[in-house]
UniProtKB/TrEMBL annotation:
This is Relaxase. InterPro entries: Endonuclease_MobA/VirD2. It comes from the Bacteria. NCBIfam families: Bacteroid_MobB. Residues 404-427 are annotated as: Disordered. Residues 37-151 form the MobA/VirD2-like nuclease domain. Residues 416-427 have a biased composition (Basic residues).
Amino acid sequence: MIAKIGRSGNLYGALAYNQLKVENENGQILFANKMIETANGHYSVAQLAQSFAPYLIANRNTEKHTLHISLNPDPNDKVSDDKFREMAEQYMREMGYGEQPFVVFKHTDIDRSHIHIVSVCVDEEGKKISDKFEKMRSMNVCRELERKHGLIPATDKEHRQNDKVFRPVNYKAGDVKSQIASVVRHLPNYYKFQTLGEYNALLSLFNITTEKVEGELQGQLRQGLLYIPLNEKGERAGHPFKASLFGKDAGLPALELYFAKCKTDLKDSPTKQTLQSAVTIALKSTTDEMGFKKQLAEQGINVVVRRNDTGRIYGMTFIDHNSKAVWNGSRLSKELSANAFNDYWNNNIKPEIKEPVELQPKISTSNDADLPAEEPHHLFDFLTTGKHEDGLIEALGGLLPEAQGEDYEEQDFANKMKKKKKKGSRL
């Protein structure tokens, strides 16, 4: 079993991501420790967050106050709900969080059974709980849980393989071909994407892009694919490599077959609605690109924006690292197409979009009247006591692949300069 511990300053984001799974019937709350109970057993994000509020009020200095932990048994392990509850309690107790409020979510939208735990790392007196030797302690607890519950052990070899798979290409480090190979040979085993554009959006996180090439061979038109390394700014940083160097699965014919398979797999995927809701909420609650990207990054969602030379947005792609799926904006919804974002961010025309999925219990009674009404954006401001996290790994701290974060301030400044230049050219 592998435990992944993430820290961020966004309690609302961690709770909202997991509660969306519950509301869309792709998850359930298995266990709640020292949480305020509701009369009907159903929760909204605000009701869950209320249990943590006194702890965060007692300590406003700790920026990364929120814990988001996932416990991931081997895909072949069969773990019952009772066993998951017992494992979560023991893990939190031995890691020093047994007396903290925490809530355990089980995710059921993918074949691999796993749980997420959300808590805070400051106690009720405002003291930060020690995280010394945390990784080593976590590994020891996982080994103990494997032995106790008869789980398949996670070997060091598996850890090394996973570390190798998801690392951005560093062209300065040399052996670029091997670096690209470690990504493209394994990426389809983890992520689903339906077009070459979606594939390129995913590859861009790892400093790689592809380009179609055409040529004639023995009188027949042939198409091929080149893989090109990029630098930190997304610019070409070396010579291209033929797809054949990475095996037939990296070539265009194999990828087109994979696109078709993913299209079938994702056709009725429940994760589409979850992602659409998260994107819609972020669009309605932010005013610019920087804030939009930050809010989604805190939920494990990357946003790749494609612009032409004049600064016009012509492509929006969302990479959901939770469900391991890539979606073009217009494929999610016509209201989330590139034109909508271009009108909003470039022309200040706010889009008219439908209300997203409500983050509230499906059943409510008058007994819950003493609990706060759902006000996600005010709650978000109240509970976020430090700076927003700027990168994917910072946002969910290890729940995502080792992809690079983005400098949102620099990107926002560059976009504003492009607008000024465009206006100046009209004079």
